[in-house]
Write a structure and sequence with these properties.
This protein is an alpha/beta fold and 399 residues long. It contains ten helices and nine strands. Pfam families: GCE_fung (PF22244).
């Protein structure tokens, strides 16, 4: 009798796993609903945007506010003081190839402070100042080990140094721990009013804010070319890198790797991860207002092609991985395609094809770049090698 009960229980469990529940992710293109994207070049007062002047003076500010109010939260711009301290320096790191600088960035406001620990390697052989890639690290700190005792494809510092670029990293824990309760311990202590506002900044916004404070530092470092800073993020970090580049136009380049929902992928496709799932699993990432769009994507006044458009005319590279359907590779590519018209206002012609390129067929020589790498949800040496090619194209050829 017990065997029969167990057998029925296993059948029920199996059926439950395969049932089409209301919150089950869709991975079938045939089941993507019909949708209409909000028009990126039409203002809220229904005026068509025909030139970059109207874009910059009217539509761009509108979109920034819509993203702040409905998704990522406000981005505080003011603080009372900022201080930089080089806590460790090694002029002969990586067997003499690079200089290591560990910089403590301390930001003060509201009678408190937040400490951001920056790891920075600068190539010794390169002519100074040099361009730099800044990673918003959402994985373990060992991935950006300053001693290089631990090396990781997630942040292949030696590859970047050998290519003539500086490479830097900050960790999200310094800004807002990635925890639904502990996220308040960091940047939000400087701006406590954000915690009670429905459009208040939460963790993703705090990480983007932190990247801008690193930019403040780069502008003081004579070894760094602060006009050539690429902000990089993977997954949730890729959501933050996009928002950082949209908010802070000092970033010369944006790289968003496998960022998916509320990153580079279109929400209205309802493919892979959806808004209700991300808000349920990570309620501390986005503002309170965003919960109104759970299972209600079409009510959003924006979609992610508009966030990509906010980076224009600066180069932007978005990626996916073939086994990472959760992050919707097709939806990411379509976001880029629907942002092309804003880049066109600046005379920037996209070289993206009409349909997504094949696996491991990167589109590099374009202001909007893309690849879908074979493999899993990750940030790899393959990805970084293409980011270097992308930077070489835009920086060294003056495109």
């Amino acid at each position: 009798m017990k065997k029969v009960i167990i057998a029925f229980a296993l059948i029920a469990l199996t059926n439950g796993l395969h049932a089409q529940g209301p919150n089950e992710a869709n991975y079938d293109e045939a089941k993507v609903p019909k949708y209409v994207l909000p028009e990126v070049l039409r203002t809220t007062s229904n005026i068509e945007v025909k030139n970059k002047t109207t874009w910059e003076s009217v539509r761009r500010p509108e979109l920034i506010k819509l993203f702040e109010d409905n998704i990522y939260g406000q981005m505080p711009k003011k603080y009372s003081n900022i201080k930089y301290t080089v806590s460790n320096r090694d002029a002969n790191a990586m067997n003499g190839k690079a200089e290591l600088k560990q910089v403590l960035i301390e930001v003060f406001n509201n009678n408190t402070s937040v400490k951001i620990n920056l790891v920075l390697f600068v190539p010794n052989a390169a002519k100074k100042p040099v361009p730099v890639f800044l990673l918003i690290n959402n994985r373990g700190k060992e991935n950006t080990d300053p001693t290089r005792a631990t090396k990781s494809e997630f942040w292949p510092a030696e590859m970047l140094i050998d290519s003539g670029y500086a490479i830097a990293a900050i960790h999200v824990t310094d800004l807002a721990p990635d925890d639904k309760e502990k996220y308040v311990n960091g940047v939000l202590q400087l701006y406590p009013d954000q915690l009670t506002a429905d459009n208040g900044m939460k963790a993703i916004g705090a990480w983007a804010w932190g990247a801008s404070r690193v930019m403040d530092y780069f502008e003081t470092d004579k070894e760094i070319d602060a006009t050539k800073v690429a902000v990089v993020g993977h997954s949730r970090g890729g959501k933050a890198s996009l928002f950082a580049a949209a908010e802070d136009q000092r970033f010369a380049m944006c790289i968003t790797n496998c960022s998916g929902n509320t990153g580079a992928a279109l929400a209205r496709r309802q493919f892979g991860e959806r808004i209700n799932r991300i808000n349920a699993s990570f309620p501390h990432w986005f503002n309170t207002n965003y919960k109104k769009y759970n299972n209600n994507e079409n009510a959003l006044p924006v979609d992610q092609h508009m966030l990509i458009a906010l980076v224009a005319p600066r180069p932007l590279y978005a990626t996916n991985a073939s086994k990472d359907l959760w992050a919707d590779p097709t939806g990411t590519f379509l976001s880029l395609k629907n942002a092309e018209k804003v880049y066109a206002l600046y005379g920037k012609k996209s070289n993206l094809p009409a349909t997504p390129p094949g696996i491991n067929q990167p589109i590099i020589q374009s202001p909007l770049a893309y690849h879908n790498r074979e493999g899993d949800h990750n940030l790899t040496a393959y990805d970084w090698s293409n980011f270097i090619r992308f930077a070489n194209f835009h920086y060294k050829k003056g495109k």
